[in-house]
């Protein structure tokens, strides 16, 4: 499954807001430097969906395309 994600880094807490079936806004604690927010995103989504996660587009952007391996 492919989803669109908008990431808000350094927000103070982790949370997921579902916008539509395939769109989410995700708040993360880590800053968007040295790949820290991307690593936190993969771990957080992995726990949320209980699946393996890959960022397939937008590694250096707030807007990302994420693949959830079924």
Question: In percent terms, what proportion of residues is strand?
Answer: 35-45%
Q: What is the fold named in CATH at topology level?
A: Conserved Hypothetical Protein Mth637, Chain: A
Number of helical elements? 1
Low-confidence stretches: none
Specify the helix fraction band. Answer: 10-25%
Q: What is the overall shape?
A: globular
- Second rung of CATH, namely the architecture: 2-Layer Sandwich
Overall residue-averaged pLDDT value: 96
Instruction: Compute the number of structural domains.
Output: 1
Question: What are the defining features of this structure?
Answer:
70 residues, alpha+beta, Conserved Hypothetical Protein Mth637, Chain: A, 5-stranded mixed beta sheet, 20% helix, globular
């Amino acid at each position: 499954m492919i989803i669109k994600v908008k990431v808000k880094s350094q927000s103070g807490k982790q949370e997921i807001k579902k916008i539509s079936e395939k769109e989410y806004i995700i708040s993360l604690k880590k800053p968007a430097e040295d790949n820290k927010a991307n690593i936190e995103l993969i771990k957080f989504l992995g726990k949320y969906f209980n699946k393996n996660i890959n960022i397939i587009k937008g590694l250096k952007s707030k807007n990302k395309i994420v693949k959830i391996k079924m």
